[in-house]
Amino acid sequence: MLKILATADIHSPRFLDLFIKSLNKVKIRPDLIILAGDLVDKNNIYALKHVYEILINKYEEIPIISVFGNEEYRGFENKYREMYPVFKWLDDEYIILEMKELKIGIIGTRGALDKPTPWQSRHMPWLYNYYRELPLKISAMIDEARSKGAKYIFLVSHYGVTYKNLEGEPRNIWPYLASSRMEKIIKDKKIDLVIHGHTHNGVRDKINIDGVEVYNVSLPARREVVLIDFTPKSKVFGLEKWLYSGG
């Protein structure tokens, strides 16, 4: 059994108090921490210091995997890596971890959208092709991680990976929140666990896509950090999730 603590969209300092209060309720010691992007507001790099220090002081020596969100601006990735080196930042990259006799490949990405936002279309028109091509790139990374011995694959994306858990958000903005193409990758590649954020108003915390559990761990949506109990069962993971409510 692997205990995972996951969250996203802290937008420090905006939801920093909520993050701290939620974290203080957690009584277990997780094996792995996953941060699914938008940890700060408007690329306020220094506002991540509070989150960083809280996590590394409370959970010393526990691996912390983080991806960038749209609020961690492109071009500043190395600055985040330099200032917060304990976090393992993944930017369209993967890492293989061996934990509790499990060899896990973790793919980390900002993710893709079916449509670039209007701002992105004006200022970064190249994102249109990037978003179209990213699912294939993710697919190739999964194959590579498996070729290097990863028995299980986790996908961590900031943006959503399906429309099936976007309820709560206005339907007309769904293409700006997620990539429906990612859903096909999840099915075809038999990913074992998917974690994402970005969907602040999503009312569905967990859905199932062809046996794969997909979690929206956005802090504004869940109102607390998410705890996932990941149990391998003869090549198929059983997943259970608790939103720790205290005491």
TrEMBL record:
GO molecular function list: hydrolase activity
Name of the protein: Metallophosphoesterase
Highest taxon above the source species: Archaea
Organism field: Staphylothermus marinus (strain ATCC 43588 / DSM 3639 / JCM 9404 / F1)
Annotated Calcineurin-like phosphoesterase domain residues: 2-201
